[in-house]
Amino acid sequence: MSSTTTVRKRAATGALVGLALGDALGFPTEFNDVPQIVAKSGPWRHMPLPARAHVSDDTQMTLAVARGLRSAMDRGVLGPLPLERPVREEFVTWYHSPENNRAPGRTCLRACELLDDPERPWQDASQIDSKGCGANMRVAPIGLAPGLSDEQRAGAAQLQAALTHGHPTGLAAADLTAHAVRLLAHGTGPAALIGLLRAYALANRTRYHHAWLGGLWRRAQDPDAEHYIARGWDDCLAALDRLEAAVRDADPEDDPCLATGAGWIAEEALTTGLLCFLLFPDEPVTALRRAACSSGDSDSIACLTGAFAGAWLGADAWPTEWADRVEYGSELVTLGALWDE
Ligand SMILES: [Mg+2]
Q1: Which of 135, 205, 240, 305 could in theory staple to 276 by disulfide, Cβ–Cβ 3.0 to 4.6 A?
Q2: Which residues are noted in the entry as Mg(2+)-binding (predicted)?
Q3: Ligand 1 centre and the CA of 57: distance in Å?
Q4: Consecutive 10-residue averages of pLDDT for the chain (341 residues)
């Protein structure tokens, strides 16, 4: 698909609105199992968007990444330091915001508290053992911003992850999530997606982005940087294997978390989010409802499903009545329009 087509379908707007809708749909069900959700909201295929369509920390932190990325790109060539400064600032602003009351993750709170000290190198704030999904649920903007080289996109995806989550799987899953969003926005079809993601993971398996990550790997127990990052990609490759089997065998009426995992950890949020998209590639609202009606981290899974479906189908994927009332909707549409130009 040419970039003209990407622009015509408004992939960035579709992905940003989609992730907020998934987040708002899944937020009330994050800590419920499927029978509890059905008791509360009725049959999953008819799950309503709450009247007050509030999003969670997933969308708030996606906006933080998007705003930081935009500031960095407005100032010049995107590199590690130009990206770190504004994104770090946005994370700390989010940390102190009175709106930060949406069941935020512990890793993000702890890391942001440490990032708040401007004297501290970010690598010392990074939670080196955490591979919670908090770093890839917010990475979509990196896959949507136009004009980045492959190296900038990968470095930026991993750096924004590493500011809070230092486990190599957090970095690899964020990079892979941004890559998936990018591929779908540019016309890669659902049938080709898993193969391309696997190829990307294999090609990057021992590539440590020294310029972007500095000495982060030394905080872990690995003998060298390549060994550190390969652990992350190996987790992602194993998760992609399970995804491939699930796309083939899973019953769409079952809880998707039974097939590919509950999504509290980074690689499972990616693959369970992808599974819901791939089960219903042309029914974006059904895909979102499937993701939100799941036993695991429903808001993060549905957030990612919304990003994938929106990148693939564009802004028209979503009912106007939903898009118009989701929280932060107008800021997301403005950002999307900027990147869809
Ligand atoms: Mg959340």
Answers
A1: 305
A2: 56-58, 297, 299-300
A3: 5
A4: 67 98 94 92 95 96 98 96 98 97 94 97 98 96 97 98 98 98 97 98 98 98 98 98 97 97 97 98 98 96 98 98 97 96 83
| Separation of CA 335 and ligand 1 centre (Å) | 21
For the chain, give the number of residues. 341
Q: How far is the CA of 94 from the centre of ligand 1 (A)?
A: 14
Q: Give the residues across from 127 on adjacent strands.
A: 165
Domain total in the chain: 1
Q: How far is the CA of 69 from the centre of ligand 1 (A)?
A: 21
CATH number for the domain including 36? Answer: 1.10.4080.10
3-state helix, strand, coil in the chain (%, to 5): 70, 0, 30
Query: Rounded to the nearest whole angstrom, what is the distance from the C-alpha of residue 214 to the centroid of ligand 1?
Result: 29
Q: What are the DSSP calls for 167-189, one per residue? A: SHHHHHHHHHHHHHHHHHHTT--
Q: Using the mean position of ligand 1's atoms as its centre, give its distance from the Cα of residue 104 in Å.
A: 6
Q: Is 222 annotated as a binding residue?
A: no
Residue 264 Cα to chain centre, angstroms: 12
Task: Of 192, 111, 161, give the one whose Cα is nearest residue 266.
Answer: 161
Q: Please state, in angstroms and rounded to a whole number, the distance separating the CA atoms of residues 181 and 11.
A: 9
For position 7, what pLDDT does the model report? 61
Q: Say how far apart CA 71 and CA 335 lie, in whole Å.
A: 12
CB 165 within 8 A of CB 110: no
Q: Three-class SS of residue 149?
A: coil
Residue 231 CA to ligand 1 center (angstroms) comes to 26
Q: Is 299 annotated as a binding residue?
A: yes
300 is in an annotated binding site: yes
Strand partners, 314: none
H or E stretch covering 192 = helix 190-204
230: left (phi over 0), alpha (psi -120 to 50) or beta: alpha
Q: Could you tell me the distance, in angstroms and rounded to a whole number, from the CA of residue 102 to the centre of ligand 1?
A: 7
Containing structural domain, residue 202: 3-340
Cα of 24 vs centre of ligand 1, distance in Å, is 9
